């Protein structure tokens, strides 16, 4: 049997501060004689949950009646009664059991935003907050009249059974908050697909946002997270499904929730200070509904989920917004065959055919000219008498599918047969073709030998260039020793610079993916003639990267000069640059906090090596997210040294009349006066948080900076420390900024004492004395980093 699949790690922010009162009511029951006022709370037996009035922000102007965890820091709300109709704090809100035995939330103005009718006359009706977090209205004989577990908001607690119906007039869904501190009804909801009882869907408004795994008639799934065993159960009712999850007694707090960004998460309290995300949907941007287009699929088998085309298809455009198209069209009456695709998520818009065997399901699709694919699962178990087969057919485009390691089903895709020629026709074609190839090969060999025997005008020019590049240089006066690769080899590796091999482009030119020396994947940067990067910048980058070897610096594998062509060959890094994650609304969730913190520390170590641990001091001058590349393990590597400068001896600073780099990342003294030093790189390292960090940090609200994509699994102390270090790095005066050695120490040592940063000025007024630069860059904008794809 299949289990509901959850993947990934990410989390939502906890922005609600505790609202506790030493004078509050601490009983677990509400009676007619004992109503609940704004300063009171009901606390469940054992103290795990509390019910009372709360304000999701610090203003305390609007109050909601809700249930939250009582014994952990912060307030994690799991249920809200009046989410769309808050009560003003000044109007004396009260929860009471009335004379009619109804449960009523009201205020002093006579407003009743929430009412539960008991249908019972007389006295004796009570309400109790149980240790499970369930708020129950009880009849005098102890039976349940109403319970909050039947009316969840955005959260499912252990033992809660939520009913999800496919009937149009019974809309029962889990509905997210409207924002991190806004409990009102949000745009995202989770419910059963009204067109099928086989799948849960996360909706954004009325549009599907993400489909969860296919359901069986009854699914039982289990998993283990940090010694916590949890079980999920999905039971069919005919009109829909009941979903619940269970944990063993004594396990840490756990919950399933749909957050305000549309992510369905399973969370466990880590017994420290935050919620850890065990699984989530969607786990990546290509998990979003139909994100890879028709006949495209989300491949989640690698480090980063990627859109690809199904077998027998090719991209229909430059990206996957248009999906994929067949390489050979299907035609009715023409031969076709089915290709099994393993571990595939069933596409949407299927036809469910009952009472079929596998062979019958295959025949149904084969005999239907419009059938494009089918899938089959036998769900039978011992003692089962009803139909347990699941034959799914598709008669149009295949949308919203994917490949996942924890899926077991096959998708059988229909493809057109390629024509098979008989042997006589094959011989007539192959023999003349081979003869032509042999003649052309001999012709090319002759031309090559002839040209090799003649002097080349490029040969003298290239020889001089290579000599210039290999001559003594600033790094210890040694010759540069690294491979020069022939233009022919590079052209072969990139299929003559085919567009299909291109993985990036920018003002510098284009970047291609290629394979050199066997199976070694490389990134080849082909500088355009109009890039503005002259031979000096080209030499600068070669010398620096070739001689400087560090885990957090990109590796240069070789270069090529051929006529006017200048090419650099780097190690291939599949995860692109840091900006591809930070500034993408969907990919940013790939970076959980531990990964982000490791990237921060890795970049700091790379800069420390450039500034202090290499033989000479090197200033990068163009540090920014697009120049930080990420390998398959998300290890950061600083790239693009075309703008870098080398300081020898005791020289600590310099000045140039031509400012290069990227505005917004350059230090004030460099922008205004051309002065640069190691403190310029320090400024660039910290500048990303400047615009949003200063006022919140000064007001003691640095925790509000934590992005919703990683708050649940992060250490807020580490986050606050990073913010303070960044503020120290972007101080106006260079003398006030720390050296990268101090930055690295502060990041890696929790016990280190951090000084308070000064408030940044709009414009620096200091006089920064420096010498004239020995070399001026030809560029006024930065060279874009090589990106892997």
TrEMBL record:
GO terms for molecular function: ATP binding; protein serine/threonine kinase activity. SMART domains: B_lectin, PAN_AP, S_TKc. The keyword DNA-binding does not apply. The chain crosses the membrane at residues 429-448. Coiled coil: none annotated. GO terms for cellular component: plasma membrane. This is Receptor-like serine/threonine-protein kinase. It is an enzyme of class 2 (transferase). Its main location: membrane. ATP binds at residue 525. GO terms for biological process: recognition of pollen; response to other organism. Its EC number is 2.7.11.1. Residues 332-416 form the Apple domain. The lineage of its organism: Eukaryota, Viridiplantae, Streptophyta, Embryophyta, Tracheophyta. Residues 497-754 form the Protein kinase domain. Residues 1-26 form the signal peptide. It is a single-pass type I membrane protein. It catalyses: L-threonyl-[protein] + ATP = O-phospho-L-threonyl-[protein] + ADP + H(+); L-seryl-[protein] + ATP = O-phospho-L-seryl-[protein] + ADP + H(+). Keywords: ATP-binding, Cell membrane, Disulfide bond, EGF-like domain, Glycoprotein, Kinase, Membrane, Nucleotide-binding, Receptor, Serine/threonine-protein kinase, Signal, Transferase, Transmembrane, Transmembrane helix. Belongs to the protein kinase superfamily. Ser/Thr protein kinase family.
């Amino acid at each position: 049997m299949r289990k509901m699949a959850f993947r990934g790690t990410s989390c939502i922010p906890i922005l609600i501060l505790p609202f506790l009162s030493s004078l509050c009511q601490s009983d677990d029951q509400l009676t007619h004689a004992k109503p609940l006022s704004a300063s009171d709370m009901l606390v469940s037996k054992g103290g795990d949950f509390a019910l009372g009035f709360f304000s999701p922000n610090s203003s305390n102007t609007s109050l909601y009646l809700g249930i939250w965890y009582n014994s952990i820091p912060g307030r994690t709300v799991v249920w809200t009664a009046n989410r769309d109709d808050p009560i003003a704090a000044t109007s004396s809100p009260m929860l009471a059991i009335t004379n009619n035995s109804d449960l009523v939330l009201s205020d002093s103005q006579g407003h009743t935003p929430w009412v539960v009718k008991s249908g019972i006359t007389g006295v004796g009706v009570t309400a109790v907050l149980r240790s499970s977090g369930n708020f129950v209205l009880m009849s005098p004989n102890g039976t349940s009249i109403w319970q909050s577990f039947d009316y969840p908001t955005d959260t499912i607690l252990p033992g809660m059974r939520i009913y999800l119906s496919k009937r149009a007039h019974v809309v029962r869904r889990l509905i997210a908050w409207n924002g991190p501190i806004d409990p009102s009804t949000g745009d995202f909801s989770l419910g059963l697909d009204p067109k099928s009882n086989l799948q849960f869907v996360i909706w954004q408004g009325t549009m599907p946002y993400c489909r969860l795994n296919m359901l069986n008639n009854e699914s039982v799934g289990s998993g283990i997270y940090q010694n916590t065993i949890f079980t999920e159960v999905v039971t069919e009712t005919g009109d829909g499904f009941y979903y619940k999850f269970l944990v063993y007694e004594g396990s840490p707090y756990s919950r399933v929730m749909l957050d305000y960004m549309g992510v369905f998460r399973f969370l466990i309290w880590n017994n420290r200070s935050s919620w850890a995300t065990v699984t989530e949907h969607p786990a990546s941007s290509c998990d979003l509904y139909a994100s890879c287009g028709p006949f495209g699929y989300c491949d989640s088998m690698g480090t980063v989920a990627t859109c690809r085309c199904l077998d027998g298809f090719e991209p229909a455009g430059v990206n996957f917004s248009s999906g994929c198209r067949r390489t050979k069209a299907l035609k009715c009456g023409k031969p076709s065959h089915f290709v099994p695709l393993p571990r595939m998520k069933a596409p949407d818009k299927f036809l469910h055919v009952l009472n079929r065997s596998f062979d019958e399901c295959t025949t149904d699709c084969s005999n239907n000219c419009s059938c494009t694919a089918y899938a089959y699962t036998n769900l039978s178990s011992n003692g089962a008498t009803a139909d347990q087969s699941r034959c799914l057919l598709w008669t149009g485009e295949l949308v919203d599918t994917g490949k996942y390691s924890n899926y077991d089903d096959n998708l059988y895709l229909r493809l057109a047969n390629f024509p098979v020629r008989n042997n006589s026709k094959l011989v007539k074609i192959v023999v003349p073709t081979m003869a032509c190839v042999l003649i052309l090969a001999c012709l090319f060999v002759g031309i090559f030998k002839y040209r090799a025997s003649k002097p080349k005008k490029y040969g003298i020019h290239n020889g001089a260039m290579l000599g210039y590049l290999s001559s003594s240089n600033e790094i210890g006066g040694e010759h540069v020793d690294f491979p020069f690769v022939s233009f022919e080899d590079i052209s072969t590796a990139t299929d003559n610079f085919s567009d299909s091999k291109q993985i990036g482009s920018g003002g510098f030119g284009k970047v291609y993916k290629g394979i050199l020396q066997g199976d070694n994947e490389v990134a080849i940067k082909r500088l355009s003639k109009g890039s503005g990067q002259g031979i000096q910048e080209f030499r600068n980058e070669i010398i620096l990267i070739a001689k400087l070897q560090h885990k957090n610096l990109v590796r240069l594998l070789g270069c090529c000069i051929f006529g006017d062509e200048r090419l650099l060959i780097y190690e291939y890094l599949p995860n692109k640059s840091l900006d591809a994650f930070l500034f993408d609304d969907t990919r940013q969730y790939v970076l959980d906090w531990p990964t982000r913190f490791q990237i921060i520390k890795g970049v700091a170590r790379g800069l420390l090596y450039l500034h202090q641990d290499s033989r000479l001091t090197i200033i990068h001058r163009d540090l920014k997210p697009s120049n930080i590349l990420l390998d398959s393990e998300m290890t950061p590597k600083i790239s693009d040294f075309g703008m870098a400068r080398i300081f020898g001896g005791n020289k600590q600073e310099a000045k140039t009349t031509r400012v290069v780099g990227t505005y917004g990342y350059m230090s004030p003294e460099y922008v205004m006066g051309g002065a640069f030093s190691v403190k310029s790189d320090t400024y660039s390292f910290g500048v990303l948080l400047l615009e949003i960090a200063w006022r919140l940090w000064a007001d003691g609200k640095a925790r509000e900076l934590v992005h919703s994509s990683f708050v649940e699994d992060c250490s807020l102390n580490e986050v606050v420390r990073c913010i303070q270090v960044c503020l120290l790095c972007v101080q106006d005066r260079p003398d006030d900024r720390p050296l990268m050695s101090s930055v690295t120490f502060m990041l890696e040592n929790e016990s280190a004492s951090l000084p308070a940063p000064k408030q940044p000025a709009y414009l620096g007024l200091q006089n920064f004395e420096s010498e004239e630069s020995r070399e001026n860059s030809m560029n006024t904008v930065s060279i874009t980093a090589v990106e892997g794809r």
